[in-house]
User: Fold TonB-dependent receptor from Pedobacter frigidisoli.
Amino acid sequence: MKKRLLKIILLVTMLSGSVMANTIDKGIISGRVVEEVGGLSIPSAVISIYLDLSEQPIITASTDDDGHFSIKNLKAGNYSVRVSFVGYAPLKVNGITITEKDFDKNLGTLKLGSDQNTLGEVTITVQKPPIEFGADGITYNVGSSLLAEGSTATDVLKNVPMVQVDIDGNATIAGKRNTRIFIDGKPSDYMTSNISDLLNVLPSDAIEKIEVLTNPPSKYSGDGEGIINIVMKKGFKVGFNGNAGISSGLQGNSNANANGSYRGKNYSINGSGAYRFNIGKGDNHNYRENFFPDTTFYYDQYGGYKNLNNGANFRVGLDWDITPKQSLRVSTNFNNNNSNTNSSNDLHYLSEDLAEQKLRNQLNTGDGSSNNFVFNSDYDLQTDTSGGKISIGLTVSTNKNLDFRDYSTTYAQPSNSNPTLQQNSNNTGNNGVTFNLDYEKPIFKKRDRVEAGLAYNYRKNDNDLAIENYNFTTQQFIKNIKLSNQFLYNENIFAGYASYNFRSTGWGAKAGMRAELTDVAFDLSTGENYNVKPYLSLFPNLSLNRFFRKRYNFGATYSIRVNRPRENTLNPQVNNVDTLNISYGNPDLLPAYTHQMEINFGAFGQKWSFNPRLSYSTSRGVIERFRTVTLIPGTSTARSESTFDNVGTNNSLALILIGNYRPTNKISANGNFSVIQSNYTSKLNSSLNRDGLSFRAAMGFSMQLPFKTAFESNLNYANNTNAQGRNKGSMTSNFSARKVFFGNRLNFRITLNDIFGNRSNTFFNEGTNFRLENYSTNNTQNFVFSLNYRFTKIRVNKTPIPPPPATMDPK
Assistant:
């Protein structure tokens, strides 16, 4: 009897253990995601499941066509859920506990509010997926990257899918010749004469996300084939929080930055400051073959440079909920940059048999300074209970830039050649005003949405160039009347738009039209006046999206964009720094219009996502730099003249592949690849009739390691064609390791940039009577050490998790 009783007890124990194990491994977290205004379901919203204290999600899934999700096979433990979707504020639910007795957690209905309107969140901490996909482009969440910590906007942009950053810090979207940089939805080219100066000092810790818009909505200006929108942090946490950091590289590069925010009951104040010191060094080799009917000769030039740059950036912002229906946001930004440049080059004149005939030595020095100030204000008024809203925005900006350069030229051979000395002083000012009035309203039981608005942009550019040549006889500088002049540019753009957004279960469609009236006038102090006849441009915008079978989406877009010639390309002032390679603008340029179409497909699994895109564009009157080589009258010397022109028509077909894979909750890999086929045809010059392929590839990898350490790396490669040649870049790389201390408040990071060697670039250019090859390298290989401290004093937002409904619609 005792043996039989013991067997029963053992059997019951085993069955109980088995049932418990099965129960523990079958935890479920489910719910439904809808819009806060209108209650319409959100298909393909990203659902990320986290274990407590984990920085990476263990499972990533998406909602089905009706916004439902159900995550199964979870073990017992404490979890949090993060819900995100492009265009909406992310939401995170903490405190989800799965036990053997309570393993089915239904979170009920989770509502996502507009990214622009929602100030609070369900929780304080937010862990965002690195990349989010949308119909009009992608979103890169800056806080998800180790490499972004303690760096600048330029550093971050180098690792954003579909974005390419050249050696001067200018960012473009792959396959797009004309990309505009926006900050908080407003064009930055109205804020500074050189956007790379701002991006090089703008701290990454003050950036929330970067949106790559390949098909910008009608609300945005029609200028540019694509837009990179940098969205700044707005102090969304309740209480006081922020961070401060410093970094330094072995080459002497260093920066320091700090930002903080305080949120009260109905307001928030945020601010940031940064300082950056950079040492740039490099060398170049330029070889040009010159072909003429009676002679052939060569220029072989070697040069090097060293730049010292320092700059500071300060931002202050206020978000104020005046009433439940009114809100005001005010922000200011001040940016200052200073530079000191020294360069030299030796130019060898070679005969047809490669014998040296002349050797020219040139030493150049320069000092520059610039400062920019921007004031932004945005006022929102809710007009009705259904979600109607009026928005009024005003941006005022001013920029000043002073550049002084000295050029000394001597000849080692023949020794009897006369030396020259020249001084250039360039004083540039930019002033701009942007005003916009927007209205949006949900209709048809809040299912659809209409938007309309008006905008006005004013831009004034004043470029005063003074050139002096040294008279060695009188030992005085004499003003060069032919080359010294003042360029004045005025631009007025009046715009209006309207769009309609349709939403249904699994479907989304958007149609919009934008009209812009452009009025431009510019002149030179020497007497030349140029008045461009005002012209009206229409920019239709269409997009269609389909979400199906819980894990797939399909989208198609069409739009017309314009590349307007502006002061940098219109200004006919001559740059004769190198008398054998001069450049100037073209005041006769015409706008270039581009028709662009794109098809994109997305597939999502628990551990992976894949997003291929196929785009086609055709442009007429493409504006690109065009080079010609001619003999200087009365000499045997060839001079290169570089200007801008409407070089012809370009048809471009691009395939872009973006994907990521997360095999475990501690390892993540992502990659993107672009190949663009370009076909140029031109009546301007037969040498421009050419086909070419451009390539861009990038790969990233991150891993969480024991003891609160992490590793991340990125590799990038680009090779681009243009109307007269090719830009062949080399591979760039970043490797970073991080260790966290004091409860995730302090982290130490080591970054190795370009482990495979300094960044190099090879440029090929060809015309009817010349061939040019330029090779350059820069000191980008560097070890960087960074410390960053995060401080937070918060008041917990005790928003309860909504209870599950009494009944659930299975759809």
